[in-house]
Write a structure and sequence with these properties.
- By secondary structure, this protein is an alpha/beta fold.
- It has 11 helices and 10 strands.
- It is about 35% helix and about 15% strand.
- The strands form 2 sheets. Strands 3-4-5-6-7-8-9-10 form an 8-stranded parallel β-sheet, with helices on one face.
- α3 packs parallel to α4.
- The mean pLDDT is about 95.
Length: about 325
């Protein structure tokens, strides 16, 4: 397992972390708790020391499972969670005052609940689950974060950037208000490399990458015929003609890289890990098999330069919310 500095915090985290949305049993449908626990345990056995969850994942179910596993392991595991927006709106709309989304009392209540769910006294990383730079200078959220730090309830603080809107956190990074940012970055959505990643490197802000596999699109297993349970968010994400589009684009990538479609996930993860600004990548891993396959790429070997350049040509600026 390769370990990387987590910004300027002084800790090092595994290059592959554990994304725990899928084990919350909501929106991502199909997780079984017994298998989720086995996957978490196997990840830790293989060196994963960073787990990212949120209070919104199954209304705390993901946090409770993680707490059960982490409390029982002797290894040091860093757990990151998130405060849900009070108005329950993802992504954060522009022009909304922060008091409608993250008033200080809401941040404190959510932090206390996450501590209880996890069964710990301190959160390694508390994040706001949506973000707009307009909120800087508004409300009492920043004062509350500092109070929670002073009380020992959180160690570090970060924001989870709105999907496909990396520039909405540039000011927070440049003013060094955050220890970390969490952002979507993958072969299709390469926009964070334009301005966000250079700013994070300059200011020592850690980068957590989510959706590195495009919610499964870059695994080679999404096709024009893919179907999901009725209440699974992927019905919208891959709705319309997107299944076919993804299938064709992934086939073209595999052909250019001269790899099998089944090897796409590993190449996609190595693409992300080849970015110097990235501290850790947090693919969802609901099974032991997926844990073992994903952790295998965390060996410190990125993609060859010619493959990185080839993949830059597959940037896809689709409208994800159309």
């Amino acid at each position: 397992m390769e370990f990387r500095p987590f910004g300027k915090t002084g800790i090092e985290v595994s290059a592959i972390g554990y994304g725990a949305w899928g084990i919350g049993q909501s929106q991502w449908i199909g997780a079984e708790d017994d298998e989720s626990i086995r996957a978490l345990q196997r990840a830790i056995e293989l060196g994963v020391n960073f787990i990212d969850t949120a209070r919104a994942y199954g209304d705390g179910h993901s946090e409770r499972l993680i707490g059960q596993v982490v409390r029982a392991t002797p290894e040091r595991v860093y757990v990151a969670t998130k405060v849900p927006p009070m108005n329950l709106t993802w992504p954060a709309a522009a022009g909304i005052h922060v008091d409608e989304v993250f008033p200080g009392e809401h941040i404190r209540r959510s932090t206390e609940q996450s501590l209880a769910n996890l069964g710990v006294e301190t959160l390694d990383l508390q994040q706001l689950h949506v973000w707009q730079d307009d909120w800087i200078g508004q409300g009492d959220w920043l004062e509350t974060i500092q109070e929670l730090r002073d009380e020992g309830k959180i160690r570090f603080f970060g924001v989870s950037i709105n999907d496909h809107q990396p520039d909405t956190a540039l000011r927070a990074v440049r003013e060094e208000l955050v220890d970390s940012v969490q952002v979507i970055f993958n072969v299709f959505d390469q926009s964070p490399s334009d301005e966000l990643f250079p700013a994070c490197l300059e200011h020592g802000v850690a980068v957590i990458v989510r959706v590195a596999l495009d919610e499964g699109g870059l695994t080679g297993r999404i096709t024009a015929d893919s179907e999901f349970p009725d209440d699974d968010f992927r019905n919208h994400y891959f709705g319309g003609d997107r299944g076919r589009e993804v299938e064709e684009r992934v086939k073209a990538i595999a052909e250019e890289l001269e790899i099998e479609t089944d090897d796409m996930a590993g190449a996609a993860l190595r693409f992300v890990l080849s970015e110097p600004a990235v501290s850790t990548v947090i693919p969802g891993m609901r099974s032991v098999r997926n844990v073992e396959r994903n952790v295998a790429v965390a060996d410190g070997n990125g993609l060859p330069q010619e493959q990185l350049e080839a993949l830059q040509g597959h940037r896809w600026g689709r409208n994800f919310y159309e």
